[in-house]
Amino acid sequence: MWTGDSVSLGPLYKKAEIDILAAEYISTVKTLSPDQRVEHLQKIQSAYSKCKEYSDDKVQLAMQTYEMVDKHIRRLDADLARFEADLKDKMEGSDFESSGGRGLKKGRGQKEKRGSRGRGRRTSEEDTPKKKKHKGGSEFTDTILSVHPSDVLDMPVDPNEPTYCLCHQVSYGEMIGCDNPDCPIEWFHFACVDLTTKPKGKWFCPRCVQERRKKK
């Protein structure tokens, strides 16, 4: 295995070596015997082969780097989609609790006002920070939720970006990964597999489900 320095500098050294061998061959070709010509040409060919080997290693490293970055991007997309779904669930739950608890807070406040003024003041002082905190939280979540998967579709698409899912499109919006480690597609858009939320437990794509049924 080649190191990063040898892969990056190897082709330069070999190219310089090829230039030197070619210049020597051209300048001395008339004085060389047939065997010497063959030997000299073999040296040039060997240098070319080595240079090609270095170049192939560079291409392989570039592909591995691209796949690694793409894997992390897909994982980040999945985490962001999961975060957005959890955030929506929490916001819906907090809205339900706040709307359902208004009557209780009002009744409790009236009861405490009848008992003593001091206790009524403490209740109002305790409620105030909670309202501010909820207001600030809603502003933050509104900002987060303002980014929709449809906005991703409007972004320019890299023609070299790999495609996924049954629709053979690039990654966007909410996606789910198949739990089959040998799945050829790996990632799927929610809409393409009839999902609105991430299912609990393991999930297998339609193709892998059919394959598992055939094996049984």
TrEMBL record:
UniProt keyword GTP-binding, yes or no: no
Cell compartment(s), UniProt: Nucleus
Main subcellular location: nucleus
A cellular component annotation (GO) from this entry: nucleus
Molecular function GO terms recorded: chromatin binding; zinc ion binding
Domain PHD-type: residue ranges: 162-211
Keyword Zinc-finger: yes
Sites where the protein binds Zn(2+) 2: C178, C183, C205, C208
PROSITE patterns attached to this UniProt entry: ZF_PHD_1, ZF_PHD_2
UniProt-annotated site: Histone H3K4me3 binding, residues: Y164, M175, D179, W187
Pfam families: ING (PF12998)
List of residues binding Zn(2+) 1: C165, C167, H189, C192
Region listing for Disordered, in residue ranges: 92-141
GO biological process terms, semicolon-separated: chromatin organization; positive regulation of apoptotic signaling pathway; regulation of DNA-templated transcription
Source organism superkingdom: Eukaryota
Keywords: Chromatin regulator, Metal-binding, Nucleus, Zinc, Zinc-finger
Domain notes for this protein: The PHD-type zinc finger mediates the binding to H3K4me3.
Physiological role: Component of an histone acetyltransferase complex.
Assigned protein family: Belongs to the ING family.
Subunit architecture: Component of an histone acetyltransferase complex. Interacts with H3K4me3 and to a lesser extent with H3K4me2.
Protein name from the UniProt record: Inhibitor of growth protein
Native species: Equus asinus (Donkey)
Gene encoding the protein: ING5
